[in-house]
Design brief:
Layout: E1 10-16, H1 22-35, E2 40-44, H2 50-57, H3 67-91, E3 95-99, H4 102-111, H5 116-122, E4 131-136, H6 139-149, H7 160-172, E5 178-182, H8 187-204
Parallel strand pairs: 1-3, 1-4, 2-3, 4-5
The structure holds thymidine-5'-diphosphate.
Length: 210
C-alpha cells in the first residue's frame, strides 16, 4: 500500500522594525487560522535555543561582539531553527508563522555594516518563505511604541538611528513574495489585510480557509 505523503506546508514570515506590531498580528493570525481547522506552528527568532538565548543576553551589550561574530550567531540560531522546527513542520504540512526570519538578518546586520547580498547568500540553507508580511511604521513611531506601550527602554538594536537604516534596507528588498503593510493604521484593518493576503495564499496552494 502506498502511503500518501502530506502536502508541504506554508512558511509565512512576519518582518518589520521593532515596534511595528509583528508579534501581536502573528498571534491574531494564528488564532484565526486555527479556527479554520488549520494546523499552525507559531515560532520566532531569535529562538529559545542555545544560540537564541545567547543573542537575547547580549541585547544590551551589543559592543561585546564584533559585527562578524554577531552575524555568525544569528546564522547559527537560524540553522537550529530550520533543522529542528521549520523543516519538520513544513514536511508535516503545517502552516508555519515565524516572527522574524532572514530578512531581519539582512536588514539589521546590513545596517550594522555587513553586506546584504552576502547575508542573503549565507542563508541559502533556509527555505524561502511563501509569504513575507512586512509591517511598516516610521522608525520614530516604532521607538515611541517601544517606550510607551512596552514601558521599556529601547535596547541596542532599537535605537532610532539604527532603525532608520534597518527600515531603508527592508524597503529595498524586492522578492516578489514580500507584501508591504502600513501598520500605522488601525489594528483591525491591518489584521484584515493580513488575513486577506493569507487567504489568497491558502487558496492558491490548496489549503481550505474561509
Ligand atoms: P524581536 O522580534 O524584537 O524580539 P523580542 O520581541 O523578543 O524582543 O527581535 C529581537 C532583536 O533581534 C530585534 O531588535 C532585531 C534583532 N535581530 C537581528 O538583528 N538579526 C536577526 O537576524 C534577527 C532574527 C533579529
Amino acid at each position: 500500500m502506498q502511503v500518501e505523503s502530506p502536502q508541504r506546508g506554508l512558511l509565512i514570515a512576519f518582518e518589520g522594525i521593532d515596534g511595528s506590531g509583528k508579534s501581536s498580528h502573528l498571534r491574531q493570525l494564528a488564532a484565526f487560522l486555527r479556527e479554520q481547522g488549520l494546523q499552525v506552528v507559531e515560532t520566532r527568532e531569535p529562538t529559545n535555543g542555545i544560540h537564541g538565548r545567547r543573542i537575547r543576553s547580549l541585547f544590551t551589550k551589543r559592543e561585546l561582539l564584533s559585527k562578524e561574530e554577531e552575524l555568525e550567531l544569528f546564522l547559527l540560531d537560524r540553522r537550529d531553527h530550520v533543522e529542528r522546527c521549520i523543516n519538520p513542520a513544513l514536511a508535516a504540512g503545517r502552516i508555519v508563522l515565524t516572527d522574524r526570519y532572514y530578512f531581519s538578518t539582512a536588514a539589521y546586520q546590513g545596517a550594522a555594516g555587513m553586506d546584504t547580498a552576502a547575508i542573503f547568500a549565507q542563508n541559502g540553507f533556509a527555505p524561502e518563505p511563501d509569504l513575507v508580511l512586512l509591517l511598516r511604521v516610521p522608525p520614530e513611531e516604532g521607538v515611541r511604541r517601544i517606550r510607551e506601550q512596552r514601558r521599556e527602554r529601547p535596547n541596542d538594536f532599537e535605537q532610532e538611528d539604527q532603525l532608520i537604516k534597518v527600515d531603508k534596507l527592508f524597503a529595498s528588498f524586492s522578492q516578489p513574495y514580500i507584501k508591504r503593510i502600513d501598520s500605522t493604521r488601525e489594528r483591525s484593518s491591518v489584521q484584515a489585510q493580513i488575513r486577506q493576503l493569507v487567504r489568497e495564499l491558502c487558496h492558491a496552494r490548496g489549503f481550505t480557509c474561509a
